[in-house]
Each structure stands twice: as C-alpha cells, then as structure tokens.
Amino acid sequence: MSTKDPRIDAYIARSAEFARPILAHLRALVHTTCPEVVEALKWGHPSFEYEGILCGMAAFKQHCAFGF
C-alpha cells in the first residue's frame, strides 16, 4: 500500500503554476507503477522510497526535474 505525505501536497501547491500538473502527474505515475512506494521529503524535495530511495522530483523557477 502506498503512503502519501501531506508535505508533498504542500510542495506541489507552492510550486510554479506550470509545474503543478507535471508534478501531480509524475506523483500519480509513480504510485500507479509501484503501489508499495512511500513518499518522503528529502533535501527539501519530494522523493519516493521502495527498498531505499527509488526516485525524486523537484520544481524550479522555469523547469522541473525527475530522476532515479
């Protein structure tokens, strides 16, 4: 069962307007493809853990990043 962190909701809400739908889509995609994933806020950015850190995402002024 996936675990959602309300801090990730807050992170997405305060991100730039262009980034919000991108981050929400990536978040949903991670939860869909790995139902056991656990969300965390690491180094000030959303990360997803499954048997260790799986991936993370971040929003900046003019771009978003997603990495494994």
3D architecture notes:
- By secondary structure, the chain is of the alpha+beta class.
- It contains 2 helices and 4 strands.
- A hairpin with a 2-residue loop joins strand 1 (38-42) and strand 2.
- The protein is globular, with a radius of gyration of 11 Å.
- The protein starts with 5 loop residues before the first helix and ends with a strand.
What attributes does this structure have?
single chain; 68 residues; alpha+beta; 4-stranded antiparallel sheet; 4 strands; 35% helix
What order do the helices and strands come in, and which of them pair?
Elements: H1 6-14, H2 19-33, E1 38-42, E2 45-49, E3 53-59, E4 64-67
Antiparallel strand pairs: 1-2, 2-3, 3-4
Question: Percent helix among the residues?
Answer: 25-40%
Helical stretch tally: 2
Extended strand count: 4
User: Over the alpha carbons, how many angstroms does the gyration radius reach?
Assistant: 11 Å
Question: Outline of this structure?
Answer:
The chain is an alpha+beta fold. The protein has helices spanning 6-14, 19-33; strands at 38-42, 45-49, 53-59, 64-67.
